[in-house]
Amino acid sequence: MSSDAERSEASETASGEADTTMDPNVRETPAGKATGDRTDTLLQTDGLVKRFGGFTATDSVDFSVDEGELRCLIGPNGAGKSTLLKLIVGTLEPSAGRIYYDGQEITDMEPNERVRNGISMKFQVPSVYGDLSVRENARLPVQQFADGAERRRRVDEAIEDAGLAGYEDVPASALSHGQQQQLEIGMAASLDPDLLLLDEPVAGLSVDERTEIAERIRRLNREEGIAFIVIEHDTDFVGEIADSVTVLHRGDVFREGSIEEIESDPEVRRIYLGGEQ
């Protein structure tokens, strides 16, 4: 998490006012009330809407993630899952609503600033550069935020944690799909995020590769304290990693609970597990 000084500075930058959330005589900001020092909530969306022409992809979504939580996001195709993640990282702009993160409002914040504030994401399709080596790919996300020995440390750790030690000079195009997924998770984690978003990280992988990804997510969550939002259709995989599960349906939150509660809910089974089309 950000230090109090860093959080205060970021709040001043975002709002033009000093962070007064700890002063009982001053009214708390909505961002501070939702995700500030007095709460365990790291991320909160408030009435988040995204429209594409006449189609509403997310419809007044109220969604939150606590510090260190491992949350999975499931739902039928077209439910708004990927749109929600892109709104959180800033690659899409909301049509309405607010996003609060770590005591400040980030609704209008640029994606690179969200990264600096601790949010990172691995998209559904691996975005490694095939013509670049594993090391060159691993260097890309950190080169704007670290240099010298610190940059080398982050790059080496990303490669080792991805299980790619010895592949440093291999072109990324020569890696298997599973290895590319591992590399990109390492690239996202190398930014030392407080919140890491993964969009279908095990799509198209073998059983053994899914197990390796699950173990890695749990390790990053346990040892590094990283909170996760993971989109995944494979409910067996969700059951392996999730602290809690949110079901999206028709652009809004439909149910939340443990994987056991979600799987036993007849309405969830109707719309997702067993199949409303």
From TrEMBL:
CDD domains: ABC_Mj1267_LivG_branched. This is Urea ABC transporter ATP-binding protein. The keyword ATP-binding applies. Keywords: ATP-binding, Nucleotide-binding, Transport. Residues 1-40 are annotated as: Disordered. Pfam families: ABC_tran. It comes from Halosimplex carlsbadense 2-9-1. InterPro entries: AAA+_ATPase, ABC_AA/LPS_Transport, ABC_transporter-like_ATP-bd, P-loop_NTPase. One of its GO terms (molecular function) is ATP binding. Residues 1-10 have a biased composition (Basic and acidic residues). The keyword Electron transport does not apply. GO terms for cellular component: plasma membrane. Residues 43-275 form the ABC transporter domain.
